[in-house]
């Protein structure tokens, strides 16, 4: 071959560190090792025995490539002969388990390449797949005698997984959904977590619960330095609430619901950036049956044997119209005020109505609100609702 092909991965340099070698003064070397460390230009003055360094060193090997990082490589084709070659075409493809990508900056051929001259190119690719990747570099050219030449080189490397992401969903009494994302650093070096955010689906609004307000300033719950050490795990919490136009529809809260996706950005070593975006997260919404009853308002603390008001929301989650009758059954501690067995009227599918009720408690302590019954007169079916909320009952003297 007239041409020589070279490929080198472009990465940031690393901090050079020395392994400290020392001994006590009464040992045979005496103060020799300590003096050598002090004279070493790569050590930090005053901290020679610590594995700290201020000098940068170029990469000595290919290194690790993680999912979400940008793979950069320098490609050089050098004419090592004494003849001029013509029509040089350099092509670089990246072969993954699912696709083949062309990474060449230009597809045009170079007219000629003189002796001791070279053609340089830098390629970039954001890695989006785990597993084996093969960089296929091909060169074709024509010699002075008109002979067409062609050769290829293969460079194989593995793409590793940098983070382990686990999610948990918690369904509140209302339509709110709490998402806990556990993110673990499974690399061998610390990470600076630049951003961890949740992009909600079109049906939800999201509130991040990873900051606290201190003296009028919003600070991260993880502190000022958001470094994640190797094999450490951090929990992020988010609260999702359906938008008003979707909260009015009962169908939104039924079945499998798409929540959104996590967007994670981090930096490693000397600022090398990586980004991962999860697939759409889904949770199994709780089943409410045909009729859902939820509390909109209820006081935290009430006086013993004094009436108090609550507001209920009744939603028709079925696909048929209901004609509902409300019955209120007293318990040992909870007594309802009003007429039991009253007609609530017709309730169409996915519709809701608000109901104001009055009750009192005859027992002190934390009492459970129970005893509501809804009957659909069309199907003669009764729905029972117990333990729908708790209220603290105290003596009127204690409350004053």
Automatic annotation (TrEMBL):
GO terms for cellular component: TRAPPIII protein complex
Organism domain of life: Eukaryota
Annotated Trafficking protein particle complex subunit 13 middle domain residues: 163-286
PANTHER family the UniProt entry points to: TRAFFICKING PROTEIN PARTICLE COMPLEX SUBUNIT 13
Protein family (similarity comment): Belongs to the TRAPPC13 family.
UniProt-recorded name of the protein: Trafficking protein particle complex subunit 13
Domain Trafficking protein particle complex subunit 13 C-terminal, residue spans: 299-393
Subunit record text: Part of the multisubunit TRAPP (transport protein particle) complex.
Domain Trafficking protein particle complex subunit 13 N-terminal span(s) in chain numbering: 6-159
